[in-house]
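Input/output pair, single chain:
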Amino acid sequence: MKYRNIPKLLVIVIISLIIFTCCKNSPDLDKWSDSPKWGDKEAVIRSWSKDTKDVDIERVMIEAGDIIMGATLYRPQNISGDLPGIVIVHGSGNTVRRITRYYTSRAFEMGFAVLAFDKRGVGESSGEYKLFDVKSSEATFNELSNDVAHSVRWLAQQPGIDVNRIGLFGGSQAGWIMPLAASKETLVKFIIAGEGPVVTAGEEQRHGVVGGDGSRKWSAKNVQKADDALDNYTGNPGFDPMPILEKLNVPTLWIFGKHDDVIPVNASIARLENLIHNGKTNNYIHIFPFGNHNFMNTETGEWYDVKSVSENWLKNIGILN
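Output:
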């Protein structure tokens, strides 16, 4: 009987090896999890940076208006002079600071002092976490952008931080929050938005309902159907980023993947191109031709190099040497 089980055991072994290999080769962003393995951010951050292996870690509580936020400041060691700083901004989820690990690690690798905090109402942060809702999006985004602005002010007050080189870095919903925060706080000198929408909250929700919000296999036909739905959208717009972007002069890098079916990529790019055409040349667009919402090339399964794209742009605008 035991010999008849050998083929089944071989199949189990092979499948296990495949799973192990896939997990082993996936980037940090594929490891976002609340599991104990990834729960201790301080214990794993030392392996994030290829160039600077040493890091000073400071857990802090930041007063942000009516709430107090739990946060962690990561500083690369052995770097002379004042450090540039980045505040990591969340997507739409009920996000603790370790879940923004992908952006934290990329910023740290570029030599930034990185401030990551728990979203309001989550983890060590007080206040109320609110689910995304079009009707309340203006009020909710106003609260979240205030939290970001408070974080920037706190970071600017820390010794060894270059106040002329502080910026924001985040993805998805952060594409709405970061420009709004920058409009409130002049200490923000740059923004890097990964897969951030440049449409109204109502349009983004409609696009997601029609297109599946990333739950289906990507197809040009499906994206086109979702894009067409925006042309006929007459519902509640909710938060509209355009009035902010039309006035904002902060250098902003927008990174999109053309195979991202979570947000309206084509509409977002078109509106940014129109802004640039009308003189808002502080906006820069970088497109990954086959990138999905997580920066993966859907044709090859490999991960696009967000760090290199961001680093080169930051050097071009004088933030990094």
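The longest strand covers residues 161-171. The first helix runs from residue 6 to 25.
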